[in-house]
Design a protein that fits this description.
By secondary structure, the protein is mainly beta. The protein has four helices and 28 strands.
């Protein structure tokens, strides 16, 4: 996490989250309109949205130091974390113990020259990693050991593995061939093209994908950064679930589209010259949406942003940098903290922070959604 970001981060003692919501029929194929232009924000407390919190210090070793967390997937008791700055994958168990590190080594067999994206292959119980520079997918077991690789005839930005073992591919600005075009398509477990389901004409423009494809197995979501469409892929069936009615400048000012499985969030500016940003937290399965404004963190004292990273549809993860221990302790020692803080959580947090050293790894906060 950049120091400038941390300073802003620590000033946010009240955090984003106001909501208007609606329910769509569970599992329905009906295309629902999400209206970002006409939202009606309300203020909320963290305790209204999350029922519990757990503080998990990630183990610090010479190999396990994280610098900038971009994505987290959870499978078989392991948090698989992408550090975008180091371009490495790290594995930690549910108690924060370090398990493995996967990093680029070269261009030999079972080696990675680049980690472009990764997914969980539930069928094979493996971590599948795509290397753009070598056009291949290398599979690793849940201990970080390489298993096998397959050559892929396509270039793409992001991918996700279905429960069947096929891959959903997102390549909005890359024309692999005239028949495939650019957009989103499916390749089978051997890397052979099956079908396209979203065509995108990106000629003359480029918008960097930012975790537009999320989830794996039975719950995969695609939020295209070139169209208004949100697709849900469940049991290998692809449905256009939502259409986003957004301000004209929304896609050009997209700052974040992030999530895992059925939970997503967007951060956007209604106008490019407007400094105020807005957020929407969406459950793509039920259709419940929350339009974010501000929320007071009444569970514990550390400032957090919501939404952040979701390991599944019921859990949000927040990562705080241990280098800011002194800043945390100043906040926790304030005498004017609101009296309605959860005292048990506050005491747990104080004990955790007091044990942290500035050189320690990140503190992971696990929040269970109500």
């Amino acid at each position: 996490m950049h120091k400038s970001h941390i300073k802003v981060f620590l000033l946010m003692l009240s955090i984003i989250f106001s909501a208007c919501h609606r329910e769509a029929e569970n599992g329905s194929n009906k295309n629902t309109i999400i209206d970002l232009e006409n939202d009606s924000p309300k203020d909320y407390l963290v305790s209204d949205l999350f029922k519990s919190a757990e503080f998990i210090p990630l183990e610090t070793t010479n190999e396990s130091r994280l610098t900038e967390i971009n994505e987290v997937l959870f499978f078989d008791g392991i948090y698989v974390i992408l550090d975008i700055r180091q371009k490495c994958l790290f594995g930690f168990d549910k108690n924060g113990r370090f398990r493995f590190k996967i990093f680029p080594k070269g261009k030999g067999p079972l080696e990675l020259n680049n980690i472009t994206d990764y997914t969980i292959n539930k069928k094979n119980k493996s971590i599948d990693i795509y290397d753009f520079s070598q056009r291949k997918i290398v599979s690793f077991d849940m201990l970080g050991n390489p298993l096998h690789e397959k050559k892929i005839d396509f270039f793409f930005r992001e991918f996700a593995c279905t429960s069947k073992g096929d891959y959903i591919i997102y390549a909005p600005d890359l024309v692999n061939s005239e028949s495939v075009g650019s957009g989103a398509f499916v390749i089978d477990s051997l890397g052979k093209f099956e079908r396209s389901f979203l065509k995108i004409d990106a000629k003359g423009k480029y918008i960097q994908p930012i975790n537009c494809l999320s989830g794996y197995g039975d719950s995969i979501i695609l939020v295209s950064n070139y169209t208004k469409d949100i697709f849900i892929i469940n049991n290998d069936k692809i449905n256009k679930r939502f259409t986003v009615n957004y301000p004209n400048d929304w896609m050009q000012s997209l700052m974040l589209s992030n999530g895992s499985g059925s939970l997503l969030n967007f951060v956007y500016l209604k106008k490019l010259d407007d400094p105020k940003s807005f957020s929407v937290f969406l459950n793509a399965i039920t259709g419940r949406e929350y339009h974010l404004n501000f929320i007071l963190n009444d569970l514990f004292a550390l400032p957090i942003t919501i939404p952040h990273l979701f390991k599944d549809s019921q859990t949000l993860l927040v990562f705080l940098n241990a280098e800011q221990k002194n800043d945390f302790q100043k906040i926790l020692s304030q005498k004017n903290l609101p009296p309605d803080f959860n005292k048990k959580l506050l005491n747990q947090l104080k004990l955790t922070v007091d044990k942290m050293e500035p050189s320690d790894n990140y503190l992971m906060i696990k929040l269970d959604v109500r």
